[in-house]
Amino acid sequence: RTLLNRIYTELYITEGQSEEVNTQHEVRQLETASKMKSLHDTPIKCHDIFKALTDQQSSIRVVLTNGVAGVGKTFSVQKFTLDWAEGLENQDVGLLTVLSFRELNLVKDQQHSLLTLLRVFHPALQKLTAETLAVCKPLFIFDGLDESRPSLDFNHRELVSDVTQRSSVNVLLTNLIRGNLLPSALVWITSRPAAANQIPPACVDRVTEVRGFTDAQKEEYFRRRFSDEELCSRIISHIKTSRSLHIMCQIPVFCWISATVLEHMLTTDQRGELPKTLTDLYSHFLLVQTKRKNNKYGEGHETTPQQLTRADRDVLLKLGRLALKHLEEGNIMFYQEDLERCGLNVPEASVYSGVCTEIFRRECVIFQKSVYCFVHLSVQEFLAAVYMFHCYTKRNTEELNNFLGTYWKTQSTFSLDDLLKRTMNKSLTSENGHLDLFVRFLHGLSLESNQRVLGGLLGRTENNPEIIQRVITNLKKMKSDDISPDRSINIFHCLTEMNDHSVHQQMQQFLTSKDRSKKLSIIHCSALAYMLQMSEEVLDELDLNKFNTSYQGRWRLIPAVRNCRKAQLGGCDLSETHCEVVASALVHSSCVLSFSAPELRQIITLNPSDPSTVSRD
Ligand SMILES: *[C@@H]1O[C@H](CO)[C@@H](O)[C@H](O)[C@H]1NC(C)=O
Ligand SMILES: *[C@@H]1O[C@H](CO)[C@@H](O)[C@H](O)[C@H]1NC(C)=O
Fold first, then answer.
1. pLDDT given for residue 552 in this prediction
2. Mean of the pLDDT values across residues 26-46?
């Protein structure tokens, strides 16, 4: 309901992409990639993506734009389209159409020609002829490849070169991308990184990546949103005080979540501290959205947290159930059947889409079929954690066993620290960290302060400081021998969610003092790896043997190679899992160690036990 031109904040878009992004969890990618100004990045303006930048570059026909969920891909598409429609940019293009994969899913079983496909989705093109299409220089934008069910398949041999020839949507699109069908057409595809490899690199002329907001753009976002300067400054300065919030704000949708919560807290009569942890922030977010709905329905007065109605709780928990069930497969889109399986019937869901419009979006699409999704993956992860915690307090062993693959028969073997340990254990074995944020939220929810915010949603909780202490001690001692050191860093983040800052503080002291004789525990090493990796300063040399710690500790330090000029990794008995982190550092575009050396990557991966020194020279 706001004009795009008024709120649009420029995004940081680069040519090329960081290779690592394909496998890692999106929030983890953000952390490692948060230092955006790297040597190899070439920023590119959204409206220039089809323009050749150098004389050598031949014409650009197919562009693939990557970016994590909520980073602003669809916004870029809208801005591009608006600028074209207003006659400002790309005026050589005669016809521009946007088709989302989300909508294309709905015709996947039908046979169409390119012409009829365009007519189905854009009735205004009813009179478009094959002849016009051939001469008007069309641009087709396909938004959200990651949402394509099933994925695009380039392995077929069916050739379609005529815009009136009928075939499956898959065949039409792949022929269009390959240039067999309508070779004069430009094609722009956007995707989350995990799905981008569906398209063979040879078919793509340019890859760009939407990286979200730089620090300056984060501030601009808030300034455009709030006319009240004082409020705006308080929000910006609060976000800067919390490292995790500040990093997350690289994703525009996260800026929106923070802005929603902080504006509400600062403008209503709220006592108490502003949220500093993610769990705290998301708990308030859930509440603010639910309150909004209550106000919308005419009550007028503010509801307090304790007044989360039974009906609200009921729906939120069903959503949580949906969220948890689909977390494992990384499913982010739901159809009516998926809702029904979790006890959400459709009338309820539509009331509910009124209840929490902002949390769970009902995508109104043609053909009367609705597609649902959470506004951001992190909201799904949060609700999944809420539901899991609820199952724990309600002793719903069946759900817990389903998820954890363990077998709890009786209540006696069933304690909070046990649950958290097992969940953490499961998340550590994930290859891409798809449970990292979920586990962080789950730990955060064990704190009384966060439980208070959510009122009765979590069920009756016993708050025993001894148990909380035990959880913290468990985290600090948690073993992770052949687990990727990147995963282990999440253990440190869980401590932060639990408001335990001791490890962080000790490591800050360690970094400022010259004394290196202090023995470091494994959790110290994970914290240090994280801090070194995120530091503004590039470390001259990382020598694992110079740290007074165990082998396990040295392994956990490895992620710091991403931010050093020279790394001494010899004699540490690295396994293949550890070497993968080094290799990922070498191919990452922001790594100072990095230069184009695929051989080096192979050497390291093949000879894990070889004392290897990798340096710029
Ligand atoms: C965690 O996983 C390890 C190895 O996978 C296993 O030996 C250990 O018993 C597990 N611990 C818990 C609490 O499940
Ligand atoms: C490592 O730490 C232990 C315990 O603090 C200490 O006794 C030992 O001297 C230290 N080793 C080195 C090489 O500094």
1. 93
2. 60
Higher pLDDT, 537 or 558: 558
Does ligand 2 come within 6 angstroms of the Cβ of 545? no
| Residue 197 CB partners (closer than 8 Å, separation 6+) | 22
* CA angle at 313 for the pair 309 and 316, rounded to the nearest 5°: 135
Q: Which of 61, 49, 48, 69 is nearest to 179 (CA)?
A: 61
DSSP class of 187: E
Identify residue 239 by its one-letter amino acid code: I
For the CA of 517, the nearest atom of ligand 2:
14
What pLDDT does residue 181 have? 96
The verdict on pTM exceeding 0.85 is no
- Using the mean position of ligand 1's atoms as its centre, give its distance from the Cα of residue 607 in Å: 29
Residue 40 CB neighbours (<10 A):
15
From CA 284, how far away is CA 64, in angstroms rounded?
36
Give exposure, 482-510, as e/b (b: 16+ Cβ within 10 Å): ebbbbbbbbbbbbbbbbbbeebbebbeeb
Position in ligand 1 atom list of the atom nearest CA 429: 5
3-state secondary structure 41-61: CEECCHHHCCCCCCCCCCCCC
Cα 557 to middle of ligand 2, angstroms: 18
Residues 71, 432, 428, CA angle at the centre, nearest 5°?
125
Tally the C-alpha atoms within 13 A of residue 23's C-alpha that lie toward its C-beta: 11
Residue 426 beta carbon below 6 angstroms from any ligand 1 atom? no
Q: Give the closest residue (by CA) to ligand 1 atom 8.
A: 425
Q: Which of 519, 543, 547 to mutate to test the pocket of ligand 2 (most atoms within 8 A of CB)?
A: 519
Predicted pLDDT at 346? 66
- pLDDT exceeds 80 at position 617: no
Q: Which of 95-99, 460-464, 528-532 has the lowest mean pLDDT?
A: 460-464
498 close to 504: Cβ distance less than 8 angstroms: no
Ligand 1 mean position to 479 CA, how many Å?
A: 9
**3 state SS of 139:** strand
Using the predicted structure, report yes or no on whether residue 95 has a pLDDT greater than 80.
yes
How would you write 541-554 as a 3-class SS string? EEEHHHCCECHHHH
Can you tell me the mean pLDDT for 16-26?
Answer: 50
Helix (H, G, I), strand (E, B) or coil at 12: strand
The alpha carbon of 422 and the centre of ligand 1 are apart by a number of angstroms equal to: 7
